[in-house]
Sequence to fold (609 residues):
Amino acid sequence: MNPSTQAARVLVQALAAAGVRHVVLTPGSRSAPLAFAMAQAALPDGERDPNAPHLVLHVRIDERSAGFLAVGLARAAAVGGEVLPVAVVTTSGSAVGNLHPAVLEAHHAGLPLLLLTADRPHELRGTGANQTTDQVGIFGPAVRMVLDISAPVGGSREVEHLRRVAAEAVAVAVGTGTGDPGPVHVNLAYREPLVPDDGAWPARPVHTRVPQSRDAAPVKALAGWASAGAVRAPLVSSASSRPRWWVEDEPTVVVAGDSAGLVARTIAESNGWPLLAEPSSGARGGPNAIPAYRLVLGSLGDEVRRVVVLGRPTLSRPVQALLVRRDVRSIAVTRRGSAQPEAGRGATHLLAEVPSWLLDGDHAADNTWLTRWRAAGAAALRAVREVLDDPAGQDGAAPITGPALAVEVAAATGAGDVLVLGASNPIRDLDLVAAWDAPPLVMANRGLSGIDGAASTAAGIALGLGRPVRAYLGDLTFLHDVGGLLVGPLERRPDLQIVVAHDDGGSVFATLEHGEPAHAAVFERVFSTPHGADLGALCAGYGVDHVRVTDVAALRAALAQPVRGLSVLEVRIDRSGRRDLHARIAAAVTAAVTAAVASEGTPEGTDSH
Ligand SMILES: Cc1ncc(C[n+]2csc(CCOP(=O)(O)OP(=O)(O)O)c2C)c(N)n1
Ligand SMILES: [Mg+2]
Fold:
């Protein structure tokens, strides 16, 4: 057997033994030894060489999409509380650079990717050889480790070395020892011949090292399905006595940011505190979840004296403002292994784990604080719905607005469903209007909140879970990764419906200061960035089912269909009134909450100001 083929087979064996199940492969010549080995490992039982392990292979043309497919597959694995590495294979050159966006997301979200990039032998580097660049260190600080493996020559120690490399790479990727999973780059040089000569695979070793992610078990037990694809949901410690700085009866809310885990909801419910939970927190739902909380904060936020923060809140300015207020005690539970406890920036107390005393509060049955928040949340939600039912502030059939679309998506998606949210308005609109009794599993790439890789991430989640997934994306977000629709005829197709909120541009900026009338002359071109793309024609080109709806009745009918195969539901919405609509919603909520809270009375011992 030639050295490159032998080395690739040994690596594939070792990766499978270390827990790799899914591999995303992109085409190329230098990566041929890996491509042949992976393809053989993907053959059904009985057709494989007895020494070839079994892997699930996904082939994609575009490395940028392939990287995000791997992000989705890693998120899907985390749903069951597992931290499983997903491998991505590329050839040399710019192919490697195309992984960078997904690597950044994986780095910030703590997702275990193994980047297996083929390279020329060392003697050809720096000589101007074709398709050869400096790949070592190309991802900078976004990877946990870089290994640069010389081209195999068939030496006696090579097999052992490769097995150690594979085990080490997986161990670092899943966070063994650090609790901090993330991407690992293994750069692999190969020399010709790059194609297999004879058939037999090397014997598999008797003993293999199987790296475990640290603390996997407690996460599984606690968060389970509701871990929302998070690999860094916090742990619970056995600390059962309250610290001395703890004050009874401080008006408290729980903020559950991205990947907080179900434990955030448990804390809120066992202490009788209002729960301000982002959609991708894994904690949204239940009696304490306050709908439209970011607007309710405008009325009740001043009374808050203590916040318990879990996960990473990224969606709204009122929450960020609350976390850094000087009259608010802010207790942040850091995400496991995270070097950047963002939520802890303004924290007065930083906890490494959830102390068990936070889970067995003894709140009184008569809880005026919670009652007022719940009344305010219910009133806020009613007010939002009333404005949306009359979006133009006038009679007649108005076009669908962004938040009205979110209402329909939330209503059509419930327990047992999987919802993947794009950045920008879709996740924020949904955050504003969703009030689930039984929430779906919600996931989003909030590591860097990019509008890139969305279709591919959703496809990876669908393929990894083996379940239908609904994605809800803005039009720019959809177009950014329209290449994610490209699933070849030999590939497993996800059951994925992509609902596109199509307002011909980015509308989120209209709600920020950039959208103030003073900047109107240039705003449309450089912030809204209209594109005029024909989504139906694009879908036709990719062989993907497409339906366009412009009214609520057709939207409801389309959302009621079961999600089968790959399809796009394009919803035409109106961007022009976004800024106004937000202002009218905010005003209506303030009025409604003030009235609702007045009728509930004010709690003793808290002075509002
Ligand atoms: C990769 C990347 N580039 C740019 C941005 C900045 N950005 C945030 S939201 C947004 C507009 C998104 O537009 P769309 O998906 O249509 O959603 P809408 O705002 O219209 O709801 C942009 C460009 C980003 N988050 N990620
Ligand atoms: Mg848009």
Remarks:
- Residues 578-600 form the longest helix (23 residues).
- The chain is about 35% helix and 15% strand.
